[in-house]
Amino acid sequence: MANYYQPEIETMPREQMRALQSERLVKTVRHVWEHVPFYRARMEQAKVSPEDIRSVDDLSKLPFTCKQDLRDTYPYGLFAVPMKDIVRLHASSGTTGKQIVVGYTQHDLDLWADCCARALTAAGGTKEDIVHISYGYGLFTGGLGIDGGARRLGAATVPVSSGNTQRQITILQDFGSTILCCTPSYALHIAEVLRDSGLTKDDIHLKAGIFGAEPWTAEMRAQIEQMLGIRAYDIYGLTEIVGPGVAFECSEQTGMHVNEDHFLVEVVDPDTGAPLPDGEQGELVFSCITKQAFPILRYRTHDIGVIQHGKCACGRTLVKMTKPRGRTDDMLIIRGVNVFPSQIESVLLSQGYTANYQILVDRANNFDSIEVNVEMNPEIFSDTVRGLVKKEKELEEALKSLLGISAKVHLLEPNSIERSTGKAVRVIDKRKLID
Amino acid sequence: MAQQLSVFLQNKPGKIAAITRALADAGIDIRALSVADTTDFGVLRMLVSDLPKAKEVLSQHNCVVSATGVTVVAVPDEPGGLARVLTLLAEHSVDIEYMYSLIGRGENKAYMVFRVSDEKALHTLLADNGLDTVSGEELGLRQ
Questions:
Q1: What does the DSSP assignment read for A165-220?
Q2: Cys staple from A123: which of A208, A248, A274, A302, with CB 3.0 to 4.6 Å?
Q3: Cβ contacts of residue A387 below 8 Å, gap of 6+?
Q4: For residue range A403-434, what is the model confidence (pLDDT) as tens digits?
């Protein structure tokens, strides 16, 4: 028997869903036209007026919104309500140039909570459950997002946040947590620390886990499920849309249902922007049709995926998306943190290094590592080891303060990083995260 | 004073061999040499017979090089000779950043290359105690 939180929505017949979406899209387009000069200007440029948008069939007439637009309008340029109506601000973990800020009204937090409650319910969660949330709480949407869903469901939340794994295990044992929410790599880390403490899955009480914010493979899923004695569910989201809960996995574990009564999903050709049909791989594009504060339209995620309509064996009719199969840009996700090579490059240049560098990403013991190889040059060369070690440390500290994670720096001699005749190979990602 | 050639060394096999080979091919003589290293990288320091030429040759071999002023001290070539010099430095708080010895020696003298925290203090100290220094030119080095 499938578990639904809002069965009338989750199993809604397609025509009814389309009607609901159309009504909401029309309303949202009017809302942004009236309240966000950016969208009005963009629509005018594209020669589209709110009257042209009558149903979801007209979605592709609307211009795209991209990450740069969020940076250009930082911090509040895309907000569609006055600050008196905003009750929460979140910011992206990525720090390319400027971070991005997203606001929520109480209505927005409520619908987000509904989305996460659907995800928890699909994973078998009820008000009886104890939801152990090891996503970071704070500006990052992970912790508070799932927290909102768990409370909406009436479950008990354990807002433990990330870190201090021994303590996490003690809490898992003593509090009797039944559902674990964190990044998949942290789940595996918890599983390993549990094992190394001489404990087994029988010493804890978990039945399910909801893991997201970074790519993971079927092998990782199998490993997590086996080591923790749970079923592991995927969840998808991004701050620009709402946070976790944009899409969630059901018991079939064959893709994620998009909460499409709130977020319209399209797949487009990354080069031309042309919409692609079901089953064809392209860039995922989302539009928020119910949010008040930050109703972003046709947001290009750079995530590559496939969508498929149809009724799922779980009974849901919500469109399904594959887990992202890669990126159209060079963004790396390292321990849940978004990292762009250009960020690393700007740090190198500001410290007197050249743009000849290479980023090595690997995963050992389920822990992502990042190393930066950079070439030495006469301007920063010091003839004492102490001086060079100091340079190396300064660079590591600058990278850590920018990225929020530690990167090991290796100083190399000039021309030791292979020059490419075409596009430079800046990133070597040895993790095998895409199935 | 003498000008020392400093070379950045990435830690990989055959690196010093390649550098010395390049210098040899250019007819450059190495008169003193030391290596300081960490697990990742090191610094090769040398007194060479022709510094400008050595810099040029090694730059062509993708090396990062620099010239650094060092002091070559003529240490009495007898038991306790070096200890006497080092004790003097220690007593007068002149810190040694690094030191190494010259290949070959003078009459009753061994030559030591010093890089210290306070070059001027070092020279005064040596002069006051009857210890000689040797310039790069006196060693026959083209600086």
A1: HHHHHHHHHHH---EEEE-HHHHHHHHHHHHHTT--GGGS---EEEEESS---HHH
A2: A208
A3: none
A4: 878 899 999 988 888 776 555 678 888 887 66
What's the domain count of chain B? 2
A287 within 8 A of A25, measured Cβ to Cβ: yes
The answer to whether A416 contacts B10, with C-beta atoms less than 8 Å apart, is yes
Domain limits for position B94: 69-132
A141-195 per-position pLDDT tens digit: 999 999 999 999 999 999 999 889 999 999 999 999 999 999 988 898 899 899 9
Q: What are phi and psi of A17, to 5 degrees?
A: -65, -45
Interatomic CA distance for residues B4 and A236, integer angstroms = 59
Domain A7-328, what fold?
Rossmann fold (3.40.50)
Chain A contact present for B96, CB below 8 A: no
A384, A410, A416 member nearest B97 (Cβ):
A384
This model of the complex carries an ipTM of 0.84
Interface test with A, best of B19, B39, B40 (most A CBs within 10 A): B40
- Chain A positions with Cβ closer than 8 Å to B: 376-378, 381, 383-386, 388-389, 392, 410-416
Q: What is the largest CA-CA distance in chain B?
A: 45
Scan for tokens 């594009």, then name that residue: A285
- The CATH fold assigned to A333-429 is GMP Synthetase; Chain A, domain 3 (3.30.300)
Query: CA–CA separation, B77 vs B107, rounded Å?
Result: 8
